[in-house]
Specification:
8 helices; alpha/beta; globular; 6 strands; four-stranded parallel beta sheet; homodimer
């Protein structure tokens, strides 16, 4: 088959995370059967997002406004900054509705394999923010993986001299999780961090 | 969260077949981190495909040219027309490289649930094509489902009076398939259609 606009579209779709050739073909056919009410609006939505969404200069969140809606919200507690790797993690915490402080998006995790070093993360601005007298606690909400934990160590190191309270997410049994399916590391940690019933 | 261009984009992505909220968020973040080299080209590819891809007036295939490249290809055997439900099925047969005849895309299957009747399928043009003196065989390559088989019966009925050879795909054990995992219907058909070893 030659490279028609259709094959080009399928190739581009199949390069998206989580999509393969088969799902890309399926999506392309779906879109071509709904050109006016789905395909063209999707193209417009992509362009609108690419043009209007920017990184918040304070926390690194994605928003149409800069600083972002969270940084500008007078209702948010300015005493807490929750450090996350990606905007997706910020959204995950926002969906819980249980955190009302500020955020700091690092933009990734240290990774030797992917060649991501300290200079690729928003650590300088985190350090600057940690000097804000309003800030009383930095919560390191980074993944419990090797990359996540080495990033957490580095971030804690950078802000240690401010004497701020630095916390991390609790490790333990996920709510609704069955013990039988959990790995030994999680169960060990949950045992060590056990609390009064 | 209010309806920003980002949430609008995620909502549109999550409505695509095979994608949910989580995968749509992941794709949106991936695209926003590659705006110039992936996100804007994808929007352009969507628009280009929406504008330039059309249904072939002869067979219903999707292509930039009308009639499509297959209908115009002098190398294809004009004696055979392979009837398929969707363009995706045509692609699946083309990928085998084992068929060199023409196609006819019905545009769906009869479905009481989805309200698809005979008038929604390209049956009139199939009937017209079956009168072409060059055509010697109609291959009904429709799914082995209830909808597929009732559509095959209807199509065969419409072209029966031309006295053409009408064939259907063989049923049997898929190549590489394990008997143990096959349903009884397939094994019964494969037994009945057994051939000399």
């Amino acid at each position: 088959m030659t490279e028609t606009p259709l094959h080009h579209l399928i190739k581009m779709l199949s390069a998206l995370p989580g999509l393969g050739n088969r799902s890309a073909r399926r999506i392309a056919l779906y879109l071509l059967s709904r050109r006016e009410d789905t395909m063209k609006p999707l193209a417009a939505a992509l362009l609108a997002a690419a043009e209007n969404i920017r990184d918040c200069r304070i926390c690194g969140n994605l928003d149409t406004a800069d600083p972002c809606a969270i940084c500008c919200d007078p209702q948010r507690e300015r005493t807490k900054i929750c450090v996350v790797a990606q905007v997706g993690d910020l959204w995950a915490i926002e969906r819980t509705g249980s955190y009302r402080g500020l955020y700091h998006v690092l933009g990734g995790l240290l990774s030797a394999i992917d060649g991501i070093g300290p200079e690729d993360l928003r650590l300088v601005s985190l350090e600057r923010r940690s000097h804000d007298p309003a800030c009383g606690e930095i919560i390191l909400a980074l993944s419990a993986t090797v990359d996540g934990q080495s990033t957490a160590h580095l971030a804690a190191d950078r802000i240690a001299r401010t004497g701020l309270k630095i916390t991390r997410l609790a490790h333990g049994v996920p709510v609704g999780g069955e013990l039988d399916y959990l790995d030994e590391g999680t169960i060990t940690t949950a045992l060590q961090s056990r609390s009064a019933a």
